[in-house]
Structure to design on (434 residues):
């Protein structure tokens, strides 16, 4: 097995750590990526992923130097693969709530056009149920002229990684491994045992597809419950974080943390991926939870408007500083970040909008700065959207002198409301009714 070749299709937040891990385990690994700049950076031994990712850049650099990892844009490399592992996006159109399968379809078509007999194809991308049966396998068979289960093997081993701990999750989290047949499962377990040091749970393809979408839908529902409680606490004059702490003193309770919204690639879309495969059953709890969580960034805007009104500042004349563009603490990942919705709502409504993020390099619709002081100079409202470490240690006395209007809207419970008010700030926060 150590002499086998792996091609990982997609070198993003999932594919890059997967490729590095296989290469680190001694397998000859190619990262197949459509973006030439990303390929160049990887082949220089540098990580294109910015943020706190323990061990990733070191592993990447070491495996590139050792010659076990290289990146390419040439799909013909799939023809060398004993194992083709697909790690591409399966996004959802947030207007129609319908899956966009074109990226996955392109990756699978490339496999079909280049696959060699006997190879194992493993899909790590999150899928609507029945995608393996109705799309992935038929495309590969049509393009290659080969037969699944006879000429090539198929597994679905959905990823369970999170920015900020990509390598750790990959190595230490249990994984579900669905297979077309027993041979596929056996070879899939042999492959993933090189990089997963936790349990691999063998099952059929459909069960694996459902498990992945539903584990994320379940968490989304839990977060929606916490957000609904937070909104109630604001109305009733309670502190949702104190209430949560007390609720969780009861055994078998795990009330989640409310916040400015749910971001990332998975949770905002996986309920819709699951629902898209259903014809007669129409999920109600999952879709309602999505509505609650999608509302939270809009509620942040309502708090901004309420806070400015209370401070006697007109919205149209205000400078607002958005603190955090990434969806996750100390990450550069902006996918479906609540900050994007907040910016969309406020841009053009306020006199000046500025964004601060210590990790993100790309700009979204408004000027972005790296220094907190620069963002807050002359600001009428500081809006904490992301739980970045830098914001926990912020010097309130210093920023009060920088801001024109000392007002903070806290979407992540980063600051203690009583302390902030004592120092002369106006303060409103998600779940903070007092």
């Amino acid at each position: 097995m150590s002499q086998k070749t792996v091609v990982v299709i997609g070198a993003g937040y999932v594919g890059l750590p997967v490729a590095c891990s296989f290469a680190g385990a001694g397998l000859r690994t190619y990262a197949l990526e459509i973006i030439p700049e990303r390929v160049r950076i990887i082949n220089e031994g540098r990580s294109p992923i910015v943020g706190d990712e323990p061990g990733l850049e070191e592993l990447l650099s070491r495996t590139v130097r050792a010659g076990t990892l290289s990146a390419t844009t040439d799909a013909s490399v799939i023809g060398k693969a004993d194992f083709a592992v697909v790690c591409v996006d399966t996004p959802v159109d947030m207007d129609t709530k319908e899956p966009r399968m074109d990226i996955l379809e392109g990756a699978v078509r490339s496999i079909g056009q280049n696959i060699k007999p006997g190879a194992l194809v493993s899909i790590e991308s999150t899928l609507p149920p029945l995608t393996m049966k109705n799309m992935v396998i038929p495309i590969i068979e049509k393009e290659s002229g080969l037969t699944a289960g006879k000429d090539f093997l198929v597994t679905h081993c959905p990823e369970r990684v999170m920015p900020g701990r990509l390598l750790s999750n990959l190595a230490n989290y249990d994984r579900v491994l669905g297979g077309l047949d027993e041979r596929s499962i056996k070879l899939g377990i042999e492959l993933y045992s090189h990089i997963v040091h936790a349990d691999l749970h063998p099952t059929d393809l459909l069960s694996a597809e459902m498990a992945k979408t539903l584990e994320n839908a379940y968490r989304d529902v839990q977060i929606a419950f916490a957000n609904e409680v937070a909104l109630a606490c604001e109305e009733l004059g309670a502190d949702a974080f104190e209430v949560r702490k007390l609720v969780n003193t009861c055994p078998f309770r795990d009330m989640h943390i409310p916040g400015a919204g749910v971001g990332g690639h998975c949770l905002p879309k996986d309920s819709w991926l699951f629902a898209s495969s259903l014809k007669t059953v129409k999920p109600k709890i999952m879709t309602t939870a999505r509505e609650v969580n999608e509302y939270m960034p809009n509620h942040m805007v309502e708090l901004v408007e309420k806070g400015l009104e209370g401070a006697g500042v007109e919205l149209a004349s205000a400078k607002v500083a958005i603190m955090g563009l990434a969806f996750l603490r100390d990450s550069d990942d902006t996918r479906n970040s609540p900050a994007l919705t907040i910016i969309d709502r406020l841009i053009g409504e306020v006199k000046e909008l500025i964004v601060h993020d210590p990790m993100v390099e790309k700009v979204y619709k408004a000027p972005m700065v790296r220094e907190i002081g620069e963002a807050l100079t002359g600001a009428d409202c500081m809006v904490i959207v992301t739980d970045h470490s830098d914001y926990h240690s912020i010097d309130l006395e210093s920023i009060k002198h920088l801001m024109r209007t000392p007002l903070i809207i806290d979407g992540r419970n980063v600051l203690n409301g009583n302390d902030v008010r004592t120092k002369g700030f106006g303060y409103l926060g998600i779940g903070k009714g007092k």
In short: The chain has two domains: 5-198, 204-434. Residues 157 and 177 are 4 Å apart (CA to CA). The chain has 16 helices and 16 strands. The first strand starts at residue 5 and ends at 9.
